[in-house]
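@channel sequence for tomorrow's demo:
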Amino acid sequence: MKALIIYFTSLGRTKKTAQAIGTAMTNYEVDYYPFILKGTFGMKVSIQTQHTKGDFSSIEQELSKLEKIEQNYDLIIFGMPTYGDNPPNAFYEILKRVDIKEQKVAIFTTCSITGKKTLELMEKTVKDAGAIIVSQARFKGLFRPKLRQAHKFGQHIN
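structure tokens (generated this afternoon):
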């Protein structure tokens, strides 16, 4: 079986979480498709502001490649950080570029404090796109990602 983990990260917590999940999924051949913001903190904030205004030019190259991926995956996992109890605007743009109708999907969010609303918004958006949610998780951690929990989540999906 094949799984694709699509994640967005600016500080690295969501990346580490995605990797912990993928490592635990021993019944799957796991591919990763990262959206990683690079640069100084100020540059990342500026990029996020652009995304809020609908300008995704900073990640357009990755988005274009994503559209061309053969979608022969048994499972797609979306991992997003929490920004103000919302997923990043890039999440919605990513979903526009991936056909997930009738696709099995798992979702997760990384957050410092809550993230509950983020997960709810992700769930609604994915369901509205016609996907079948098989699992979801929220990983809270103020400074470090909860990698043991992420590993258990990956085993659960397995």
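heads up for whoever presents: The chain is about 40% helix and 25% strand.
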